[in-house]
Amino acid sequence: MTKVLKFGGTSVGSAANMKRVAEIIRREKARITVLSAMSGTTDALVRIVSAAAENDQNTIDERIGMLTEKYTTCIEGLLNRYKQEALNRMQATFELIRNETSNFREYTSERKIIAQGELLTSAIFTFYLNETGTKAVCLNSPDFMVTDQEEKVDTKRLSEALAPVAADPDTFYVAQGFICTNNKGEIDNLGRGGSDYSAALMGAAIGASEVQIWTDIDGMHNNDPRFVEHTYPIRNMSFDEAAELAYFGAKILHPATIQPCKDKCIPVMLKNTMDPDAPGTTISNCDDNSKSFHAVAAKDGITVIRIHSARMLMAYGFLRKVFEIFEQYRTPIDMITTSEVAVSLTVDSDKHLNGIVAELEKLGTIEIERNNSIVCVVGRMEHGDAGLAARVFESIRKIPIKMISYGASHRSLAILIATEQKKQTLQSLNDGLFQ
Ligand code: ADP
Ligand code: ASP
Ligand code: MG
Fold first, then answer.
1. pLDDT tens for residues 317-366?
2. Which domains, and CATH codes, for the chain?
3. 194: Cβ below 6 Å to ligand 2?
4. Which end of the chain is more exposed for a tag (fewer CB within 10 A), N or C?
5. Does the Cβ of 13 fall within 6 Å of ligand 2?
6. Probe ligand 2: pick from 118, 176, 187, 195, max atoms within 8 Å of CB?
7. First and final CA of the chain: distance in angstroms?
8. Which atom belonging to ligand 2 lies closest to the Cα atom of 37?
9. Stretch 28-43: mean pLDDT, rounded?
10. What is the pLDDT of residues 76-95, one digit of tens each?
11. Ligand 2 mean position to 9 CA, how many Å?
């Protein structure tokens, strides 16, 4: 059994938690342990970056002070023999960050600063393993997580680089999640929450028998526990369902995590570091067909673009022209509904909105609506089943609905609502479909 285990920020957020993690990886005989930065670090580093861009030295000092305190407390609670070495390493990290803020280069400095959380956390944890008699090596993920122009990780290179790791059962390898080298050879990252994805790619690269994502909750719940009361963990889930939930906002998993594991049929377990014996969730090829509704997730920050055009009437090729504009701006569309004279699309990124709208205006009149959420109900909804959509809409009959998507797959029904209605929508669906 070759296992890759990933631990999120809370799981490595203190000396006590790092000790738990060490126990878990020894018990599980993890081949690679992928770590996020200690909780709160990446947010603080992002804040330091924006303060550097604005020449706000007070904020930089304040955040570095906060991080210094956090890491010093952790090192002192964790290490004896390697304490001084770890403290030196920490000082070097904060010196590097200070240097980058005073010679600030947009993008390059930003990426370099943000990478330091994972680098420092993994170094401290490896010191601890070695100090407690566990043979451990800290890998440098940017050496083998290398992205191309399309920001895709070169998986062939990754497999080759990790071949010696795959063949060495006697060492515990520790690696940083989240960070990589981009196609210009600079340090970069896979986007917020990307450590899950790093673990999935490394698991696929070494042909792992399991990828375990360890976090602060006992698996994937049927609804978002941050907003909804009485949610419960789901024991088994298919790759497709998990991918859909992650894509539509289930924060427990980065949306890109599932694909590499699905491609290689590697089960993904979601486990709780604070309660390691809880069963958690197993995501695999097996499907639970017993229920119509499995889970609900919501994704915020959705913008609707509505195109009104008489030219659509009875025309063909109109949608192609619309899609080409989104393709040109490399902006994915999440939801789409059409009528005789209008088409509504949603996007989760406003980055190229002005350019897109300028092009779309050549095709018709454009309306933009911001601050929406997509709520996605995932389950088994066969086209022959009567009454399933009715049950969903009955439970949210008081919520104004802006768009509906049903029937694209047997797995999901998605609706678009104003974000201010999200909490009530999620709770109403929970009460109506799951209790
Ligand atoms: P980590 O730092 O370990 O990566 P995250 O904060 O990214 O952890 O993800 C875990 C959190 O995801 C949980 O604490 C929970 O609040 C949130 N979450 C959102 N939706 C779900 C869901 N459907 N099931 C479980 N947790 C969820
Ligand atoms: N530390 C990074 C973040 O906070 C990556 C991760 O935790 O997955 O986004
Ligand atoms: Mg996460």
1. 889 999 999 999 999 999 999 988 899 999 999 999 999 999 999 999 99
2. 3-216 (3.40.1160.10), 294-433 (3.30.2130.10)
3. yes
4. C
5. no
6. 195
7. 38
8. 1
9. 98
10. 999 999 999 999 999 999 99
11. 7
From the CA of 35, how far away is ligand 3's center (Å)?
11
Letter string b/e over residues 308-343, b meaning 16 or more CB atoms within 10 A of that residue's CB: bbeebeeeeebeeebeebbeebebeebbebeeeebb
> Token match 């008489």: residue?
310
Q: How far apart are CA 392 and CA 322, in angstroms?
A: 31
Output the CA 337–ligand 3 centroid distance in Å. 31
Closest CA relative to residue 197, chosen from 235, 272, 147: 147
Q: Is the pLDDT of residue 146 over 80?
A: yes
Whether the pLDDT of residue 256 is over 90: the answer is yes
Q: What is the pTM of this model?
A: 0.94
Nearest ligand to the C-alpha atom of residue 189: 2
CB atoms within 10 A of CB 164: 10
Task: Give the closest residue to 208 by CA, choosing from 281, 159, 256.
Answer: 159
Q: Whose CA is nearest to atom 9 of ligand 2?
A: 192
**Burial readout 400-435 (b: 16 or more C-beta within 10 A, e: otherwise):** eebbebeeeeebbbbbbbbbebbeebbbbbbebbbe
Distance 3 CA to ligand 3 centre (A): 19
pLDDT on residue 311: 76
pLDDT score recorded for residue 103: 94
Residue 37 carries which DSSP code? P
Output the ligand 1 site: residues, CB below 6 A: 8-11, 36, 193, 215-217, 220-221, 224-226, 250-252, 297
